Protein: Gliding motility protein GldM
Organism: Flavobacterium franklandianum
Amino acid sequence: MAAGKLSPRQKMINLMYLVFIAMLALNMSKEVLSAFGILNNKIIESNSITDGRNESSFQQLSQKAVDQPGQFGEKRAKVEKIRALSKEFNDYIEGIKTTVTTKFERDAEGNLPYEEMDKGDLIDRMFFTGDKVSAKGKEFLDKIHNFPAQIKAIGGSSIAEFEMKKIEKRFATNQVYSEKAGAKLDWIDYNYKGFPLIATVTKLSQLQADIKTTESDVMTGMFQSDLVAAASLTAYQPIVVLEKSVFFQGEAVKGKIILGKFDPSLKAKSVVVNGTSVQAQAGQANFSFGSGNIGEHPITGSFNFDENGKVISLPIKDQYVVVARPKSATISADKMNVVYRGVVNPMTISFAGISADKVSASAPGLSSTGGGKYSMRPGTGTEAVINVTGTLPDGSKVSDRKTFRIKGIPSPAGTIRGEMGVVKGPKSSLEISTVGAKLVDFDFEVGLDVVGFNFKVTGMPTVVVQGNKLNQQCKSVLSKVGRGDQVTISEIKTKLVGAGSYLLPRTAPVIYEIQ
């Protein structure tokens, strides 16, 4: 196109062709910039998920440190320091991202204008002074370079050597060979000089991802040694499992000793309980001895194993309590010291030292829900008497009884839009609102239905309504009121959900002030 003398028409055609090529290149560039933006969002989303996973892991570690401070307390302290170090580094990088993107306006979904972030001058001016690295650039490099060393100083031997090398490689800042330049370039030049801003922001987000991954790897790696130790017999703990926690005087104390990590193929060389050898079975040993006097008694001994030519002894240490035979039952209302008519009253009924399946209770309206739990629906009258009978291990019976007061459900308060007292709002809101009722400071969860009410505006006739919403007559009256006028909702008729025609006591009115 450049050869020979061209006519004005040909020159115009050539110019249009160049503009067309330029537009194609521009569109391609926008697609690449958008791709970086989308990738950046994906990394940020992944970082958020990793944050949640790391927090969950740390909370589990913290609980273990509370339960077993000797084993996990020191590791928790180290992880806490590493998490603080990671947060400081992450926040530093986030500060850089915020600085270089401040002038760009985000859209309604919080996305940056990726296609406008095609220049790299903001980062170039921050990290470089001419051809040299600026003070801010050196600070950035020092943060990256020092991060693995700081982690190693905190974690020490708790971090495996291979894991530490992986972290050091992840944050290495060695020179990188550039095919384009045909030579090795400084790491910061190779990764950050002359790139579109959105590409650099994406790289910074990836660096944050590396920080969070490192934090996760450190926590995971610290527990690898625990998993290895768990394979050894020294990790097993004998557990005393009694038939019940309390025994009556004269009964035999029965139970078994099992290992915390049960293995059917595991057999002990010997088991000693309270100075007496007992027969060892697959991972457990059954025992039986006299209960003794009333009070606390120790259970001691050892599980003995052969391992690598040595005898490994795992100590047994527990205790049991002997109590006198019961003479009275324990009966308690789960909510309060009365039972309410019209609702289900949950109750717990038991005899000390007697299993729930050996205890029976009876009263009008009382039914068992299993495991010592009962439901009480009192009927008429002012009192409910509950009779309880328990069967002792020797077959003998013990019994007791208790009287409860029966009270009615207290009066509810009327509501508009779920609000009580004086409610303010526009007429349009009242027209579509539902009249309801609420029990204030009542310990039971109950459903209430409003089946009718009176609608009254001063100076106008009262409208009697069936249901829980304003009818057409109410709306007609409402159209004549003005700002500041009050509408009184009274004579509210309230029923319990599922209680048939049973109406609650008078429901307190609610007032709606027109605004």
Q: What stands out?
A: Confidence is low (pLDDT under 50) at residues 19-28, 227-231. The chain is about 35% helix and 30% strand.
